[in-house]
Amino acid sequence: xxxxxxxxxxxxxxxxxxxxxxxxxxxxxxxxxxxxxxxxxxxxxxxxxxxxxxxxxxxxxxxxxxxxxxxxxxxxxxxxxxxxxxxxxxxxxxxxxxxxxxxxxxxxxxxxxxxxxxxxxxxxxxxxxxxxxxxxxxxxxxxxxxxxxxxxxxxxxxxxxxxxxxxxxxxxxxxxxxxxxxxxxxxxxxxxxxxxxxxxxxxxxxxxxxxxxxxxxxxxxxxxxxxxxxxxxxxxxxxx
Length: 240
Fold this sequence. Notes:
This protein has five helices and twelve strands. The protein is an alpha+beta fold. Strand 6 and strand 7 (134-139) form a beta hairpin. The protein has a five-stranded antiparallel β-sheet with strand order 9-3-2-1-12, with no helix packed on it. A three-stranded antiparallel β-sheet has the order 5-10-11, with no helix packed on it. It folds into two domains: 1-62, no CATH class; 74-237, Immunoglobulin-like (Sandwich), CATH 2.60.40. The chain has helices at residues 2-10, 13-21, 29-41, 184-187, 218-223; strands spanning 74-82, 88-97, 100-107, 113-115, 117-120, 129-131, 134-139, 165-167, 173-179, 194-198, 229-234, 236-237. The protein is 17% helix and 28% strand.
């Protein structure tokens, strides 16, 4: 019955139906007027430049260069993790949305348990290499230097300090964590950066005074006593 009433108001026949859908001649807004005009001329109205999400698609509208079209963080960098023998054991992805960096890690082939997981300051993953700060120290992946941002704070306040990996009994682990402690440009700087999986758990400098009245020592403040370097991957920019 409502259709009959609207047809009486707007006219009869096919043109009336089009005008009903367009909001009739009395419809508000430019969309109603354009549709009504199109009904008279027989033309198909042009679609609005406003997307279904209500965001203008017109040139000059602000968009996030670090977000994908569907609103998710965009993948900007990745690292392939390898053990000292050169075997690939996993991947780490870096996605950015504004100031938030999302790190996604998938690994396999590691002993079960918690493992320290950090970004190191130099993009070199060389087995049996010298520590750039002290060449007398040689070991697996020492070429990657210390933690990103280690010069400005003690562990776990470094820019590169991340949530630990929890490796399952089958040797695999998955981790998704976020941080705003560093800018991805700092990770992809001239000397690069590396993702490191350590052999042991990271205590994050949590040494109660009843065990260490003088506070954590230098080794704890540097790495959280997470032990040797079990796997390393140079962070590389994703292009294309």
